[in-house]
From TrEMBL:
Provenance organism: Tetragenococcus solitarius
Statement: the UniProt record of this protein carries the keyword Nucleotide-binding: no
Name of this chain's protein: Multidrug efflux MFS transporter EfmA
Main location: membrane
InterPro entries per record: MFS, MFS_dom, MFS_trans_sf
Transmembrane segments: 16-39, 46-66, 86-115, 175-194, 223-247, 259-279, 291-308, 314-339, 351-370, 382-400
Gene3D superfamilies (UniProt xref): MFS general substrate transporter like domains (1.20.1250.20)
Keywords: Cell membrane, Membrane, Transmembrane, Transmembrane helix, Transport
Organism phylogeny: Bacteria, Bacillati, Bacillota, Bacilli, Lactobacillales
Subcellular location: Cell membrane
Protein topology in the membrane: Multi-pass membrane protein
């Protein structure tokens, strides 16, 4: 079935899939920004923001290892459609509650964020396993770059739309955009051709698949080290990422609209990074741009924490946010491309599930302490700590030879297999 897709117009199939992800992504991200800005404006608390981000991450950490084997077994299109329906349903519940009470209970917002994260936990590894099943191996890095462009475009457009609508509409109306996006995205996804899952001849149980996925990742020494260091880096980057709205409104004394501008500029940088990857994505050694992205993220975050809390400092913060955004796709996209090319398609679900879980695992630990630390010593100092930590992750990754040369060896293996 996969070969039939490649022999037919696979480019059209991929574009239709990416369009469906763009539509659902932009509406979902718009609502996500609106909720975060509502919490920022109402509470002005780093602890509340870090807890909200924590709730958004916990399902990914706890459920991804379980989700992976199901991605290998179940209908992939259903694994994208059903979570969209559930997220839209909770958007309706939150909207009706806010319209009825005239305010939004914080606990219900937290529940909504948690459910949305559960939905994304099923969708994210599914998207990463669909891409290699509908894309020839030689075009995989570029198509991942195009997926990065879609995700970056969502992050560019969504804050602008969200900031505009947040000032124009009551939140309970804004939430219903998620419902519209789900309807349109599902309608497009119906026409995408995805190969059916190839199941193992053994009727292994899910827990056995989880154990096997973990074992296959750990035994791939170079990739395992790369993923492990990437996981450690999330201990630093996730707390800082959750504080972007608060450093704008609290440290630089700007408005929610200014926070929207920062998000847009960051995402413009991400779009530029994804574009570079999609156009020039055939590097013989992807570890060099991968590690350079670590350095850029670390340096820009650290310098941001030293900026003065005035207009000039804020302008520099916006510029550094663009550079951070530029670097992020090189980390996300190149790492996922290496994972996708390291294993057969029918094994990817369990591998991607564990990889995403490991990358997300330390983030909640950092978030538990991030809010109280930021409230205590200042949110800008949290950026300094994060930047220094990420920079050292890059250094450690470079010093460990199996990780540093992994992509060169992977290319050599793929060339031998194609002979």
């Amino acid at each position: 079935m996969t070969q039939q897709i490649f022999k037919s117009n696979w480019q059209t199939n991929v574009r239709l899939f990416l369009l469906s992800q763009f539509v659902t992504g932009i509406t979902s991200t718009t609502v996500q920004y609106a909720i975060i800005w509502y919490l920022t404006e109402r509470t002005e608390s780093a602890t509340i923001l870090s807890f909200a981000t924590l709730l958004g991450m916990l399902p990914m950490v706890l459920l991804n290892p379980f989700v992976g084997p199901y991605v290998d077994r179940l209908n992939k299109k259903s694994l994208l459609i059903v979570p969209d329906i559930i997220a839209a349903a909770f958007a309706i519940i939150l909207s009706v509650t806010g319209a009825t009470l005239g305010t939004f209970p914080i606990w219900l917002i937290f529940v909504s964020l948690f459910i949305r994260s559960v939905a994304q936990t099923f969708q994210m590894p599914t998207v990463q396993t669909i891409i290699p099943s509908i894309t020839p191996s030689g075009a995989l890095t570029k198509i991942n770059g195009q997926l990065g462009i879609v995700q970056s475009a969502n992050r560019i457009i969504a804050p602008a739309i969200g900031a505009f609508l947040f000032a124009l509409l009551p939140l309970h109306w804004l939430l219903l955009i998620d419902v519209i996006g789900a309807i349109l995205g599902i309608s497009l996804l119906i026409f995408v051709t995805v190969s059916r899952n190839i199941t193992s001849s053994h009727n292994r149980q899910v827990f056995a698949d989880m154990k096997l996925g973990f074992s296959e990742l750990v035994n791939n020494k170079g990739l395992w080290i790369i993923v492990l260091i990437g996981a450690i880096s999330s201990l630093f980057i996730m707390p800082a990422a959750s504080m972007y709205p608060l450093i704008t409104t609290d440290y630089f004394q700007k408005t929610v609209e200014n926070a929207g501008i920062v998000s847009v500029v960051y995402s413009v940088g991400s779009l530029a990074g994804g574009t570079i990857i999609s156009l020039f994505g055939k590097w013989s050694d992807r570890m060099k741009p991968f590690l350079l992205s670590y350095v850029v993220i670390g340096v820009t975050l650290a310098i941001s924490g030293f900026l003065p809390p005035n207009q000039k400092g804020f302008i520099w913060f916006v510029l550094f946010s663009a550079l951070t955004g530029l670097a992020v796709p090189f980390f996300d996209t190149l790492l996922m491309a290496m994972v996708q090319q390291s294993y057969p398609v029918n094994q990817l679900g369990r591998i991607v599930g564990f990889t995403m879980s490991l990358l997300s695992l330390p983030g909640p630990l950092g978030l538990i302490f991030a809010g109280p630390i930021a409230d205590s010593i200042g949110v800008e100092k949290l950026f300094i700590i994060a930047g220094v930590g990420i920079f050292f992750c890059a250094l450690v990754n470079w010093l460990i030879k199996p990780a540093r040369i992994y992509d060169k060896q992977l290319h050599q293996t793929m060339e031998k297999n194609n002979e």
